[in-house]
From TrEMBL:
Domain RecA family profile: 67-216
One term under GO cellular component: cytosol
Keywords for this protein: ATP-binding, DNA damage, DNA repair, DNA-binding, Hydrolase, Metal-binding, Nucleotide-binding, Stress response, Zinc, Zinc-finger
UniProt cross-references to InterPro entries, sorted A to Z: AAA+_ATPase, DNA_repair_RadA, P-loop_NTPase, RecA_ATP-bd, Ribosomal_Su5_D2-typ_SF, Ribsml_uS5_D2-typ_fold_subgr, Rubredoxin_2
Binding positions (ATP): G96, D97, P98, G99, I100, G101, K102, S103
Origin species: Fontibacillus phaseoli
Function: Plays a role in repairing double-strand DNA breaks, probably involving stabilizing or processing branched DNA or blocked replication forks. DNA-dependent ATPase involved in processing of recombination intermediates, plays a role in repairing DNA breaks. Stimulates the branch migration of RecA-mediated strand transfer reactions, allowing the 3' invading strand to extend heteroduplex DNA faster. Binds ssDNA in the presence of ADP but not other nucleotides, has ATPase activity that is stimulated by ssDNA and various branched DNA structures, but inhibited by SSB. Does not have RecA's homology-searching function.
GO molecular function, one term: ATP-dependent DNA damage sensor activity
Name under which the protein is recorded: DNA repair protein RadA
SMART domains: AAA
Amino acid sequence: MVKVKTKFYCTECGYESPKWYGKCPGCGSWNTMVEETEKVVKTQGLTSGLFHTKEKPLPIINIESGQEPRIQTGIGELNRVLGGGIVPGSLILVGGDPGIGKSTLLLQTSHEMAKAGLRVLYISGEESTRQTKLRAERLGALSPDLYVLCESAMDGIEEAIDQVKPDFLVIDSIQTVYLPEVTSAPGSVSQVRECTARFMRISKGQGIATVLVGHVTKEGAIAGPRMLEHMVDSVLYFEGERHHSYRLLRAVKNRFGSTNEIGIFEMNEAGLAEVANPSELFLSERPLGVAGSTVVASMEGTRPMLVELQALIASTQFPSPRRMATGVDHHRMNLIIAVLEKRMGMFLQNQDAYVNLAGGVKLDEPAVDLAIAVSIASSFRDLPTKPFDVFFGEVGLTGEVRAVSRAEQRVKEAAKLGFKRVILPEKSMKGWKGPKEIQLIGVNTVADALAVALD
Ligand SMILES: Nc1ncnc2c1ncn2[C@@H]1O[C@H](COP(=O)(O)OP(=O)(O)O)[C@@H](O)[C@H]1O
Ligand SMILES: [Mg+2]
């Protein structure tokens, strides 16, 4: 008889305990302990003592450095998000809703890497090899150096790795992999944790760049303990609106680059196509010369992006009006509404306010403030904005417009797309000159900006 033990794990931090708690003693979150039964077979070095490199401490000046070598994935947007390509031996976690296109992205990446002469092993625990082949045919991802295996037992996967000796490994998905030593079900906290630890050892030990696909929970976090995110080198999220064809890839953690960059793709019949010029995409359905619509020049990492921002102000009978923001921070929206009420004398207390960024993009930098203010004022007064104006600037509590970074790049992008005027913080105009085909209007207050935009 094997002794079956019941344990409780925190899905946030991985805290382990023999009894249930409402509040995790490890991280203090509520209602995160889940029960798992497991047959405990002690094997050495599952998570503990992962590497012992037998190296001695060195003075830092004697350590060889040089740039991390990078493997170009053949997919520019992915390289951008990773900070210039995949670092050999790194472990990357890719999360996203079901059906968003994770398998598609990774199969295409695998194909591109195989085409470039690397050995690639794609392991699917969710789809049969035939299904994967069908998908690969649709995506045009057939190359002789791309090996596919349908397997979910860790032993089988390790055997395949020994056979193929890949440079690039994809595990689709980490929730389907299981270690027989850990008897809880695949996808459970302990399985996911131990299997990830194994893959970490494999990827670091053998220098294999490894991508783990992870499912997300209803709350949008990668299923399994939060700890997973600490174990891997990079965490990427693939997201998008169900009803739109484009997808955003963003890094929430990256040990080898910044987390500011986003990658933009469009999903179509032949797979994911890279979107090299996102501004065009996000402005493509813009109505011209209507009240409530403005264009904001924003930065996503090092890339400028123009996005349409819409506001709708409608009177309401209810004592507490609705305030809804999609794509922008709703606290910023409330703050800007307060500024418009107090400084501009707009009576918005009996008005519902909706603010929406087109195309499902999210912008969280304060430079969108000015566009929010102008859109709301434009809709409230029912005055159309000029179709060839672009806005950016942070709004302060006294109604002042504050400087933001990288003004020159934002203006250049606006000029490239044929806009005629940019309304920007006057303080951001020092020390550079914009292209001459575009007019720059520096403003110091929201009132100045409205006078220009809605005259
Ligand atoms: N025959 C097809 N033609 C066009 N698009 C398809 C086809 N089959 C699947 N797709 C697209 O691919 C998506 C599934 O992507 P997939 O990579 O399997 O997602 P994930 O691995 O994240 O669950 C579907 O939502 C659909 O948009
Ligand atoms: Mg999939």
